[in-house]
Amino acid sequence: MANFPTRVQQTIDRGYEFNFGDYISKGINLVVKNAGLFIAFTFVFLLITMVLSFIPVIGQLASSIVVGPCLGAGFLIAARRTDEGRALEFGDFFKGFDHLAQLATMAVITVLIMIVVAIPFIAIAGFSYFTAFSSGGIPEFPPIWTLVLLIPVIYLSIAWSMGTYLVVFHDMKAWPALEASRQIVTKQWGYFFLLLLVTAILAVLGFIVLLVGILFTYAIMPCAQYAAFRDIVGVADEAAIDLDITSHLVD
C-alpha cells in the first residue's frame, strides 16, 4: 500500500460526501472577494500561455510542462489565502513555482501516459486519414464507435484532477499524488466530471456574453475545485486554523 499522508488515506478509506452546489457557490464567492486580483492574474495567465503556444516545440513544451502547471497552481494558493481570510497579494499567484519540480514531473508523467492510453484511437484515426489522402479523397472523422477508445483518457483526466492539489497542499511527490487523486476521485467520479463540466461551461458563457467576462468566470473553475478539495481532503496544516475536516467523511 502506498504511504499517503494520514488525511489523504482517511479520505480514501472512509469515503466522503460530495456537496456539488456548495462548491460552485463557494468558488464564485472566493473569486468575488478578490475579483480584481483574480481577473488580473487570469489575464496574465491566459496571455502567457497563449504567447508560449505560438512558439513551436520549446514554447509549447514550456507551457504544458512548466509554466501552465505552476501558474495553474497559483489559482489554488490564492483561493486558499482568500478562503482563510488572509491578505492576498498579486505575487501569491506565482508561488506555484515553489513546487516546480513535482508539478513538472507530474505533467510529464500525465502526458506520456495519456499518449500511450490514446494510441488505439490515434492509430485508427491516423490510418483513416492516411487512407483518404492516399486515395485522393477527403479525410473523414473516424467511425463514431472509435470514441469508445478515448474513455480511458477521459477517465484519467478527471481522476487525476486532484494531483496538483495534493502536491501543493500536502507536499506529495508527483506519482503518489496522481495515484491518491485517482483513488479519491474514482469514489465520486461522476460528480467530479460534472463539476469540471459546469465550471467549464461558466467560463465559456463568460466569453460569449462579454469577452472580459472570461477573466472572471475562468477563475471560478480552480476556485470551485479548491472548495471541493478542501471539503473532501483538507490541507496539511489545517489544524493550525482550527477547521474540522472530518465532518464530511462517511463512516
Task: Quickly describe the structure.
This protein is mostly helical and 251 residues long. The protein contains ten helices and no strands. The protein is globular, with a radius of gyration of 19 Å.
Architecture blueprint of SSEs:
Blueprint lengths: L5 H9 L5 H14 L1 H19 L4 H26 L16 H35 L16 H9 L3 H8 L3 H13 L2 H21 L4 H19 L19
Helix pairs in contact: 2-3, 2-10, 3-4, 3-10, 4-5, 4-10, 7-8, 9-10
Describe the structure.
- The protein has 251 residues and is mainly alpha-helical.
- The chain has one domain.
- It contains 10 helices and no strands.
- Helix 3 packs antiparallel against helix 4, helix 3 packs across helix 10 and helix 7 (163-170) crosses helix 8.
- It starts with 5 loop residues before the first helix and ends in a 19-residue tail after the last helix.
Oligomer: single chain
Rg calculated over all Cα atoms: 19 Å
Choose one word for the global shape. globular
Q: Got a strand count?
A: 0
Mean pLDDT across the residues is 87
Alpha plus pi helix count:
10
SS-derived structural category: mainly alpha
Helix content: 55-70%
**Biggest β-sheet strands, sense, barrel:** none
Helix-strand pattern: HHHHHHHHHH
